[in-house]
Structure formats: C-alpha cells, structure tokens
Here is the input.
Amino acid sequence: VQLVESGGGLVQPGGSLRLSCAASGFTFSSYAMGWFRQAPGKEREFVAAINWSGGSTYYAESVKGRFTISRDNAKNTQYLQMNRLKPEDTAVYYCNEHRSIVVVRTTASDYWGQGTQVTVSS
Here is the structure.
C-alpha cells in the first residue's frame, strides 16, 4: 500500500489549496479514504472522510463549509479542496485508508501517507 500526498504549500489567510492523495497497492474503489492533520505539539486530528463511492462525506466541525473532500476512482486519487484558509489550519496533512468509513475517521488505519505541509500565514 502506498499513499502519496501533494499540493501543500504556503498560502495567505483566506486563500485556497487543493491537496491530492495518490493511492496504489490496494483496490482503491473499495476503500473509504480520509484526511487528517497534525500541528506542531498537537495530536493528529480528523479532518474529512469519504466513502468508497463518494456518496457520503464527513467533516470536522472546524472545517465544515470551507473544505471539500472528493475522489476519482478512475485515477485512484482523492482530493481535499481547502478554501477560506485560516492560520489555525497550518499543519501537516495526511491521507489514510480503510475498508470501514467508521474506522477511517479514527487513527486506527494501518497505512498513512508521508504528509504534506500546509502553512497559512501572511
């Protein structure tokens, strides 16, 4: 299993970024996918998750209405569109996978990407 995040960077408050997570080594279209983030000195926290078909999505309250999770099963890739970014969104963002949409929203996944840094600062 390999998960490779990309798309992070430095953005001003109020700006946007789109993260991608390219997956391989498993049947992507059968798995739920998730995004987590970890800021310095803090625990890894849930951001968003999407079921295998893309028909159900879940968000942390802190990002609801600003972030959108999506997936393209033909490309084995999931995305996180982040709008109206705030300094408190600064963190390393990780993607994960699990067959269960319940488990993928926890840190119990066996496989994680290496992370991509998002910094929101003026």
